[in-house]
Amino acid sequence: MKILLIEDDVNVIDFLLTNLKAESFTVDVAYDGSQGSFMARTNPYDVIIIDYSLPIKNGITVCQEIRSAEIVTPIIFLTIYSDLKKKIIALDTGADDYITKPFSFDELKARIYAIRRRPHKIESPIFTAGDIILDTRKQSVHRNSIPLNLTRKEYNLLEYLIRNKNTVVSRGMIMEHVWNAESDPLSNTVEAHILNLRKKIRDEINNKNDGFIKNIPGRGYIINV
Questions:
Q1: Phi, psi (5° rounding) for residue 130?
Q2: Which residue of 5, 17, 86, 97 has the smallest Cβ count within 10 Å?
């Protein structure tokens, strides 16, 4: 899951980055409202977290600009303001949730998962593709009941591919959803991680790579089951 955090408090940013990355979320950070609005309108995210009070443009303005661009990405306000009027304004502007500081990270995490279910049908935390079972809650992957030891980025890559199984995803789509905005789009990092994934999900019984992740020349990759 890829999250955009629009926040100017470095202590809050450090706290959230540490905890969100520990949950295997990919996080981009914008330090003011102008930058945050631009990033939200030009990049795909699964959830956007916005502070109410921001430099240049406040959170309400950012939320208005995102919704005016017809972007339906779930938005969570994370702010010190607890008065009802500000909460109503944020929700009326297009926010999906509102959390006041100080806050519990466990609650924020639960709300992130809950809010991601709202626009779509409620989905199971378990995804399958052939004999691969991926558990998003435990962040575990098994093949033929054998656990696969994946790095965080390998897990995120495999989760994205399995969520989009039977669909060709381009290299650019993978970069947008699995890596952050600072990643070099010209590097071979996607290809290197695909190669490592293929090695790690090799069928333990046949001891050979059986083409689980297929390369479609000029188009991208697909898990076709």
A1: 65, -125
A2: 17
Q: Is-contact 225 130, C-beta < 8 A?
A: yes
- Under 8 Å between Cβ of 213 and 161: yes
Distance CA 32, CA 67 (A): 18
Kindly report the number of other CB atoms within 10 A of residue 196's CB atom: 15
Nearest alpha-carbon partner for 95 in 73, 116, 70: 73
Alpha-carbon gap, residue 46 to 27, rounded angstroms: 10
Write down all domains in the chain, each with its CATH number in brackets. 2-117 (3.40.50.2300), 126-222 (1.10.10.10)
Q: Average pLDDT of each block of 10 consecutive residues along the chain (225 residues)?
A: 94 95 92 96 94 96 93 93 93 93 93 78 74 89 91 94 93 90 77 92 59 90 88
Q: Can you tell me the distance from the alpha carbon of 109 to that of 195, in angstroms, rounded to the nearest whole number? A: 31
| pLDDT score for 111 | 93
Terminal C-alpha separation, the chain: 23
Cα–Cα distance, 158 to 42 (Å, whole number)? 24
Strand pairing partners for 76?
49, 97
Which structure tokens are listed for 11? Answer: 């202590």
Beta bridge partners of 140: 135
Structure tokens at 218: 């000029």
Cα gap 34→20, rounded to integer Å = 23
Residue where the block lists tokens 């939320």: 63
